[in-house]
Design a protein that fits this description.
alpha+beta, 1 helix, elongated
Amino acid sequence: ALQVADDAEGALASLCAAIGVVLAADRLIGGCDWIEASAPVHLEVPVDGGAPITAARFTVTLIYSTSDPLA
């Protein structure tokens, strides 16, 4: 079972792990030929007058085939 942490860093790690679990469980989601995610890049987003927001950015690549690339 997926565990969720109490702190922001732990919660972000839990969220990234949950996304990874979903993608790994079905690499063909929605009829794709393959789905893959990059490693997350952790960020601190500044907020005027407040504490920074902990965030992560990652790329999800969807590979698929089509009979007509312009359709």
